[in-house]
Amino acid sequence: MDLSISRLGPAKINSPLRLSTERGDRVCNFVPDDERILYDVSLRSCRACHSDPAVEPLSLERAGPREHIYFDPNKLRVGIVTCGGLCPGINDVIRSLVMELHYHYGVHHIFGFKYGYAGLVPEAGYDVIDMTPSLVKNIHHDGGTILGSSRGHQEEDTMVDTLERMGLGILFAIGGDGTLRGAQKIHEEISVRGLKTAVIGVPKTIDNDIALVEKTFGFETAFSIAIDSIRGAHVEAEGAPNGVGLVKLMGRHSGYIAATAAVAEPDVNCVLIPEVPFSLDGDKGLIHWLRKRLESRGHAVIVVAEGAGQNLLEADKNDCDASGNVRLEDIGLFLKAKIGAELKAAGVKYSLKYIDPSYIIRSAPANPNDSLFCATLAQNAVHAGLSGRTGMLVGLWNNVFVHVPITEAVAERKLVDSEGELWRWVLESTGQPASWK
Ligand code: F6P
Question: Which of 238, 315, 342, 404 has the maximal Cβ count within 10 Å?
C-alpha cells in the first residue's frame, strides 16, 4: 500500500490561522507535517517493526491545520460538488466547508456545482451557486444537499476544462466510491495538464463501505434511524400469534447498516447481509430456522440488507443505474412472498409485517454525533486543501483524522468481515446460525 499524499508544491505562505507550534502556551497547535498515525496499532505489528529497525511501520499522515499553506487565500477560488445517493450530513459538510474557508482562511470565492459532476459539464446547463455564509448558515437542519446530486460518469476532460476556465484552486468532492473514482480521474487529468488544482474528497455513504475509512459520515445516523423500524417490527411481531417482522435496510454490497442496527437494537433474531450467503430451503435454510423460531418463541424479527441473497433472485446483469451498479432485485419483497407462501403451505397461521424505511433513512438530517463528525471532517478537508495536498480524502483511522490517497480508498470495497468482530456481535446478539450451509 502506498499511503503517501501528493502535493501541488511547497507550502510557503504563513497560515492565517492564529495557532501555535509550542505546547504549553495554551494556544491550539498546528499539526506538524511529519506527524503520522500507525496503520496497525496491534502489539504484534509494533514488535515486527522493532525486530527490524529498517522497516518503517505503515502509517497515514495526520490531518489538521498546517503552519504553512500552499494557496494564497485572497486569490483562491474553490468549488464544491456533491454526488451519488443522498446521505445524512451532506449539508453539514457543505456548511462547515464554507464557514471554515470564509471565516478562518478568508477565502471568499466559493462556488457550488449543481447536481453532482453533471454540474461541471456546460451542456447540462446548470448554474453555479455562490456559496456564502448567509446561504449555508441554516442548511444543516435539513437532510439532502442544497446543491442537489446525481449519479453517473462525466468526461474528466470536460470537467477539468470547467475547473481551468473558472480558475479553481481546490475542488471538494463529497461522495462515495463512484464519486471518489471520478475525483481520482479529475486529479489525474489535472496532473497531466500540469495545473495547480487540488482535489479533496469527503467520504460520504450510509453504506460505510469505503476502504481505509473507519466510518463514513451518514452511516451512524442511518443505523440509528433504522432502529425505529426494527422496534416497530418487533412490537408488531410480538403483538400477533406467529408474528414476523421483516425490515429491509440499504446496503448494496456491505451490510454495515443492518449488522450494526441489529446489535444496537437487539430485538432482531436474524440478520441477512450480502457478505454472508444464506439458503432458504432445507434443514439449514432460513425457512426451517423461522419455523423453529416461531414454534419456540411465537414471533421473529428479520433484518435484511438490500444486497443480501441476490443469488436467490434473477437480476438482469445488464440493467445498471447511472453509476454502473447492477439494479438489485428486491430481496425484501421476495422474502415477504416466500416466507408467506411457505408458512401458508405448512398450515401455519401467521402475521407478517414488512417495513422498508430505506429512503426515509437516507434523506434524514444528521444526528448530533454525525453532525459533529461532518463538521470536523470538513474543517480537516479545508486544512488539507489549503496546504496544497491533492488526490486525497479525509478520513478517520484509529479514531484520528488522517489523509488517505484516493487510489487506496477505492482500490477495494470495505465489507463486513464474516470472521470479524462485528459479525460475531451479530451472531451473539441474535442467536442465529453461524452458517446456513
Ligand atoms: O448511496 C448508497 C446507497 O444508499 C445504497 O445503499 C443503495 O443501494 C443505493 O444508494 C440506492 O441509491 P439510488 O436509489 O439512488 O439508486
Answer: 404
250 within ligand 1 shell (Cβ under 6 A): yes
Instruction: Give residue 348's identity as a one-letter amino acid code.
Output: V
Does residue 338 surpass a pLDDT of 80? yes
Distance (Å, whole) CA 248 – CA 358:
7
Mutate to test the pocket of ligand 1, among 206, 216, 362, 413 (most ligand atoms within 8 A of CB): 362
The separation between the first and the last C-alpha atoms of the chain, rounded to the nearest angstrom, is 35
DSSP-derived pairing of the beta strands 351-355 and 6-7:
unpaired
Distance 85 CA to ligand 1 centre (A): 5
Q: Which of 207, 209, 267, 370 is catalytic?
A: 207
Strands (E), 286-432: 299-305, 351-355, 389-390, 392-397, 400-405
Which helix (H) or strand (E) is 69 found in, with range? Answer: strand 68-69
pLDDT tens, residue by residue, 379-424 = 999 999 999 999 999 999 999 999 999 999 999 999 999 999 999 9
Query: Sign of the CA dihedral 291, 296, 302, 307?
Result: negative
To the query of whether residue 207 is one of the catalytic residues in this protein, the response is yes
State how far the Cα of 145 lies from the Cα of 264, in Å rounded to an integer: 28
pLDDT in the model for residue 14: 98
Atom nearest to 84 CA in ligand 1: 1
| Average pLDDT along the chain | 96
The DSSP 8-state label assigned to residue 411 in this structure reads T
Burial of 423 from C-beta contacts in 10 A (0-12 / 13-18 / 19+):
buried
What distance in angstroms lies between residue 30's CA and the mean position of ligand 1's atoms?
38
Instruction: Name the residue with the closest Cα to ligand 1, atom 8.
Output: 252
Counting from 1 in the atom list of ligand 1, the atom nearest the Cα of 362 is 4
Answer yes or no: are the C-beta atoms of 291 and 297 closer than 8 Å: no
Find the range with the poorest average confidence among 10-19, 188-197, 305-314: 305-314
Residue with CA closest to ligand 1 atom 14: 85
C-alpha 213, offset from chain centre: 8
Q: Could you tell me the three cell numbers for 287?
A: 425457512
| pTM (two decimals) | 0.96
